[in-house]
Amino acid sequence: MRIRMYISKTKIKSGSAILLAMFLVGLAGCTSSEEYYQEASLSRNSAYHQWKNQREAKEQSQTRINGQLSLNDCLKLTLVNNKALQRIVQEKEIARGNTLMSYSAILPSVNLTADYTRLDKVSSFSVGGGSVTLGDVDNYSAGLRVTQPVFAGGSIVAKINAGKLFSLMTDQTVRAATQEVIYEAERSYYDVLLNQHLYQISADAVRSSQAHLDDVKQKRSGGVASDFDVLRAEVELSNFQAELIQNKNTINVSKAQLLKVMGISQDSEFVPSDELVYAAQKIAMEQAVETAYRNRPDLYGRQFDIKYQKELLKIAKSRYWPVISGFYDNTWSNPDPHNSMMIDWGRAWQTGVMATLPVFDGFAREGQIVQQKARFKQSQIDLIDAEETTLFELTKGLLSIEDAEEFVQSQQLNLTRAEEGSRLAQVGYREGINTQVEVIDAESALTKAKSLYYQAIYSHIVSKLYLQKAMGVLGVTMQNDISGSSTPLLTDKQNKGESK
Questions:
Q1: Does 453 lie in the same domain as 329?
Q2: What is the pTM of this model?
Q3: Which of 56, 170, 293, 403 is the most exposed place for a label (fewest CB within 10 A)?
Q4: Residue numbers of the domain that contains 344
């Protein structure tokens, strides 16, 4: 009993020692929080240097401009450097690859095979006291097989047509993306022009307020104006200075946005050379609809999609028909394929016609046809929806132009009134008829009238851009250069409509 107790205690002590040793080893292998933080800090530092190197390399490769920038040059730079458009253009290569794949349905397939087999033992039999072997331990063979599709239930022609239609759909996708990019570029360009005018208006207001403050201070020295008048003029100057700072920041942001759309370096320095110009435009709804129906890329794309889905439905239905192909096999092998006892290279060939027809495939054919019929119906609904969207966008564009024209005309008259009111207030103040508050109010009204006038012109220009995009004619010459589309487009006279 004592011996057993002794052994048990010894085992317990030994087990405790082992657990203690494992615990100490585990503690030695643990990583402290500080070491984790140092590793993360080094990783973040490495990531920063990697980003810095990539940015420098990217900046060196990016286009950079300096000086005057016209709207036409802006659009050219956009079409060449815009990253979103570059990505969409690659869809044309995808479509080209899809077209090449579709021709595999009608072209023959050629396969080469090679084989080597080593046997552990060859068959043999005895004849007249001798042994005759059948074959050889080392077996070599090479084969050529040519297969030519002959009939596949109509799927051969359908696959080729589907490849062509997919390519046409891709052309319309590129056209739509090009128009969207042109719209964004032009709108961003006019954003810069508008913000420059607003900045200039604020700068003029600051100069006028500063001159008025100097005049009030001079009058206070002569005892004509009070400290309140000076304080009121200083507050008005500070307000205009705050607007000036905000408008300056807005210009920088709008320029950065335009550079992003153009896809060129943010270090570029440019000044827009075009102007915000109001040009009245009248176009009838019927003419706008006709132009849109003849030019919008999404309508063409939906039309092609219907035909595309119809061809895919034909492919699905073709699985009910047998697939018939002609074939030719040519085999070279050692031993001879015609005489296995002849250990030498020989040749054998065969040709024929084969047909395959799946009798039951677990309802896979039926399921695929049901799916494809639904997709075909969806494509028809998509075309109707696209036409309704077109009518909505045309209506919205025409109404926006009409409202913008009224806005411009009202602000033209309002600006004339504000300029005359400011002039009369200044004259009356100098003659002691008007108060300082009236002068300040007149100046604020003039500043607001100028801002609203240029905002009205901007709204009119953007509304016309929106209508052109809704009709599918925005930048048609440039977008054809990019997409290579052969879609018939209206002439410039038809695109612009009748101006009144």
A1: no
A2: 0.78
A3: 56
A4: 112-119+134-151+325-356
